[in-house]
Amino acid sequence: TKEVGNIEDAFLKLKKEKNAVLMAHFYQENKIQDIADFVGDSLALAQFAAKTDAEIIMVAGVHFMGESAKILSPEKTVIVPDLNAGCSLADSCPPDVFAKFIKQYPDHKVITYVNTSAEIKALSDIVVTSTNAKAIVDSFPKDEKLIFGPDKNLGNYINSITGREMLLWDGACHVHEKFSLEKILEIKDSNKDAEILAHPECKKQLLMVADHIGSTAALLNYSSTSSSQKFIVATESGIIHQMKLKSPNKTFIPAPPNDSTCACNDCEFMRLNTMDKLYNALKFGWPTIEVDEAVRVKAVKPIERMLDISN
Ligand code: 13P
Ligand code: SF4
């Protein structure tokens, strides 16, 4: 038998033995992206989880991504490397408070971003990601009253490009909110040929100066098709790995945050996942993601509605 040389090889061997697949979000560390069966944005990961034949789905991302996979494929075992990999945006929307909020507006349809708990999805009419949010909002009749949550920045942005006045929940992602507009403009000033790429979870002031706004998949696609050779990237820096793979000769500058403690904006939840944790989680079949069946049957409908529109 072949000697196992390193953790990546050991993981790949185990993955085969256990009939597992590994899907990873673009914000994972490079090594994890490189050994994953599939790397994608939130929408692509949900689409992949809904279709895979594997018995075990390993999710290298954050908790809500594991939950979406389990909601869509309840018969599969869904394993995450670290249950503490949460999401500040999902946490900004507690289900009991959101339930009270939407109860005040019974004539409104409820649209929620995928970065939420299963309980929030169960309260929603439809789920969206950054990739399909505009198309899904556009699919509602113009006079339909809409609530959008939890991300106020994405909600504001979608309102601005659709001409809607959706009622917004006051939530945000701490990673995308802390980019420094001032520092970004300084970098732009000394790199006039650079284009600013921004995720719609960023604040409005930053989106106003961005050359291109989109989900991680949309920004990646734009960076490889644009004739520009230099980009200032205002989203989690993990995406730069795929950008460089697609465009090895282009320059990617991670947008700096307000605080000076780190050079770029990493999501500490996403970065809790490591190769060692992935290996151990698969070996011991733990921790798994479990979703209460009563919640799951309600939560699956708005996700499937989204997938139907997006396919
Ligand atoms: P997308 O990859 O869908 O753009 O989402 C970004 C994000 O913050 C995921 O947590
Ligand atoms: Fe959540 Fe923000 Fe991290 Fe994405 S980057 S997982 S929205 S905390």
From TrEMBL:
The keyword Cytoplasm appears for this protein: yes
Pathway participation: Cofactor biosynthesis; NAD(+) biosynthesis; quinolinate from iminoaspartate: step 1/1
The species this protein was found in: Saccharicrinis fermentans DSM 9555 = JCM 21142
Any one Gene Ontology cellular component term annotated for this protein: cytosol
Matching InterPro entries: NadA, NadA_sf
Top-level taxonomic group: Bacteria
Entry GO MF terms: 4 iron, 4 sulfur cluster binding; metal ion binding; quinolinate synthetase A activity
Name of protein: Quinolinate synthase
GO biological process, one term: 'de novo' NAD+ biosynthetic process from L-aspartate
Cofactor(s), names only, from the UniProt record: [4Fe-4S] cluster
The protein's Enzyme Commission number: 2.5.1.72
Keywords: 4Fe-4S, Cytoplasm, Iron, Iron-sulfur, Metal-binding, Pyridine nucleotide biosynthesis, Transferase
